[in-house]
Amino acid sequence: HQYLGNWKERIILSVQSAAQQFAYQRKNVRQRNFVDQLPVNFLIIGLLEKEKVTRPEKICMSCERLDITSNATFICMDCSDILCDICLKYHKSNKATSNHDTKPISTLTDDVNIPKAFKNICALHSKKLRLFCNDHDIPCCTLCASLCHRKCDNVVTIEEKAKRFCADAGFEKLKVDIVHVSNDFDTLLSYYTECLQSNVKH
């Protein structure tokens, strides 16, 4: 839901009339809370992040979350974000992210290998995510596995989970669907931009 969350305000405004049909309305769930209630699927998030990083135009992800478009020149290996010069400055000055490993995008010339460079560090224990709990559908570090998932029946390595996921028949369709969704969002954003510009002129 992280990817959708960036767009939820815009989507909510665009589907007000159609929203009456959805089940979440009948269950008295507020529209603004709907996206937040979607389960987190880390594999989907990973695919979306890869799609953003490998797209031809390198757009700063921090600026994009604020509906600002600026060219990205750096990549943060800890956050899996690509950043513009200004956002890099704040990234380095922020106490929580000052020690993050950042590199110029120009040093990572092979787009296919960019996502592989991300460290995938556990937010709780600052250890590398090496395992995947199928019972909870989340990646975890070895400490997470021993403390929080020791009673889980189906904990596998990240590599094994990735192989199974990529071997699934729906994987290629999912990648195509993600591209379509991304294109739809771009179209929607262009439409709203044109509408706003038109309203300003009048």
Task: Please give the structural blueprint.
Layout: H1 2-5, H2 8-14, H3 23-26, H4 31-34, H5 42-54, H6 61-65, E1 74-76, E2 81-83, H7 85-93, E3 102-104, E4 131-133, E5 138-140, H8 142-148, E6 155-157, H9 158-167, H10 170-201
Antiparallel strand pairs: 1-2, 1-3, 4-5, 4-6
Domain B box-type: 55-105
Keywords: Metal-binding, Zinc, Zinc-finger
GO molecular function, one term: zinc ion binding
Molecular structure report:
It is a single chain. It contains ten helices and six strands; from the N terminus they run ααααααββαβββαβαα. By secondary structure, the protein is mainly alpha-helical. It is globular and about 65 Å long. The two termini are 36 Å apart.
The 3D shape can be described as globular
Helical content class: 40-55%
Tally the beta strands: 6
Give the spatial strand order of the biggest sheet. 2-1-3
Biggest sheet: strands, sense, closure? Answer: 3 strands, antiparallel
Structural class: mainly alpha
Percent range for β-strand residues: 5-15%
Number of helices: 10
Mean pLDDT comes to 75
The low-confidence runs, each spanning 5 or more residues with pLDDT under 50, are: 1-26
In N-to-C order, the SSE pattern is HHHHHHEEHEEEHEHH
| Oligomeric status | single chain
From the alpha carbons, calculate the radius of gyration and give it in angstroms: 19 Å
Protein name: B box-type domain-containing protein
Keywords: Metal-binding, Zinc, Zinc-finger
Domain B box-type: 55-105
Pfam family, one: zf-B_box
